[in-house]
Amino acid sequence: MDAWLRTVEHRGRKSGKVYRTPINVFRWDRGYVACLTYGTSADWVRNVLAAGECLLTTRRRTVHLTNPRLEHDETRHWLPWVPRQITGLINANDFLLLDE
To answer: How many domains does the chain have?
Structure first.
């Protein structure tokens, strides 16, 4: 398993069904930042934005995250050095910021 791969639990916008999606996510000073390698219109992103919250399962605990917001940043400054370089190769410059 990737060191930054975690599971986000979100509820479907229309169905209300609970989904669990693996995502690449990193800690930052106010919570977590998810690198949107599949873009801003992925279903899980739209579900989290619509709900205004989600649960993130890390190695040790489940964290309630709120205030989701999209950010575009071509410097990818939220990421550690290695993922910053890798995501730069694929032009993954969109992020979902979530407060803990």
So the answer is: 1
Q: What are the contacts of 85-93 at 24+ separation with CB within 8 A?
A: 87/35, 87/37, 90/37, 92/35, 92/36, 92/37
30: domain CATH number? 2.30.110.10
What is the pTM (predicted TM-score) of this model? 0.89
What is the rounded CA–CA span in Å between residue 82 and residue 36?
Answer: 16
Give the range of the structural domain holding residue 68, as residue numbers without chain letter.
5-76+83-99
- pLDDT tens for 19-76 read 999 998 998 888 999 999 889 999 999 999 999 999 999 888 899 999 999 999 998 8
